[in-house]
Amino acid sequence: MRYMFIVTSAHVGPPTPELLEAMHKLANREIKAGRMIDNGGLMPLATGAQVRIANGKLSVVDGPFVEAKEVIGGYAIFELRDKAEALAMAKEFMQLHVDHMPGWEGTCELRALVTPDMDGACRPDVRAHA
Q: What is the distance between the alpha carbons of residues 28 and 38, in angstroms, rounded to a whole number?
């Protein structure tokens, strides 16, 4: 089952060097094990833009976005057995923040990805894995 982890926080600024090193070790381990498919951190809001639809019209808003209270700071995509394994991985990842960036507060949301074999339905990936 494929999961996307989405990390959000109100924290401004980059992770500590210690946290970056710990995250790289975890990512390297998971990539070698074939569980992590992709991951990345996101640049600050000031470098981004939003394309919006309101009243049937498109508009573009350049960052930073005033209304943003929490922002997505990074993501990862994993191939895991089930939600229990995904939760265990998310807890391990978030523990790195507790250990290497005291005072940081945030959320790691995990969501099953929709796959092409779902016939357009929004159901979690239920393919059998060998």
A: 11
The length of the chain in residues reads 130
**Rounded to 5, what percent of the chain is helix, strand, coil?**
30, 30, 35
Question: Of 77, 75, 78, 71, which Cα lies nearest the Cα of 105?
Answer: 71
User: Lowest-pLDDT range, 22-36, 51-65, 84-98?
Assistant: 51-65
Neighbours of 93 (CB within 10 A): 21
**DSSP bridge partners of 60:** 51
Cα 66 to Cα 55: distance, rounded to the nearest angstrom: 21
pLDDT at 129: 45
In terms of DSSP H, where are the helices of 33-82? none
